[in-house]
Amino acid sequence: MAEVTSIKLIYGTAWKKDRTAELVYKALRCGFRAIDSATNPQHYNESGAGDGVRMAVAEGVVERQDLFIQTKFMAPEDQRVRTSWDDSDPLEDMVHQSVRSSLQNFTIVGEEPYLDSVLLHSPMRTMYHTVVVWKELEKYVPNRVRRLGICNADVETVNTLHGHMDVDPFFVQNPFQYDRDFDIEMRRFCCDRGMLFQSFWTLTANEHIAQKPIVAHVAQMAGVQLIPAYFSLVMSLGNIAILDGTTREVSMKSDLEGVDKVRDWALGQGATEWQAAVEVFRAMLEEDDLRS
Question: What residue stretches are annotated with the NADP-dependent oxidoreductase domain (predicted)?
Answer without folding.
Answer: 15-197
